[in-house]
Amino acid sequence: MRSWGKTLRDLAMALLNATLILLIVSLVLGLMVLQQVNRVSDRVAELASVPEQIATAIEDDDLLGEIDRLQTNLATINDALESDDSLLPPDEAQAIRQQLAMLNTTLASGADQCAADLQQLIEIAAQDYAKNAVTRLAPLLPDAQN
What we know:
mainly alpha
C-alpha cells in the first residue's frame, strides 16, 4: 500500500503539471488574440488613411492652381491696360477692364465654390468609406469566423 506522503506528493505534482499546462495554453491563446488585434488595428489604420489619400489626390490636382495662375494673368493684363493707355481707345480699354474685373470675380467665386465642393466630396467619400469599413473588417473579427 502507498503511503500518504507519496500520494500527496503525486497529487501536488499533478496539480503543478495541470497548472503549467493551463498557463502555457493561456499564453498561446493570449498571443493569438494579440496577433488578431494587431491585424485588425493594421486594417483599421489602412482603412482610415484612404480618405486622407483621396483628399491629397484631389488637392494635388492642379485645378485650383490653374485658377490662381489665370487670375494672376488677368491681373497682369489689367495692369498693362492701365499703365499704357495708348494700346487701345479709352472706351475699349475701359470695357476690357470691366470684363477682366468680372472674369476675375467669377474665377474667385468659382475657385471658392470648387474648394467647397471638393471638401464636401471628401467628407461624403470618408463617410461612405467609414460605413463600408465594418463590412471589410468583419472577416478579421473572431466572431465572424465562427
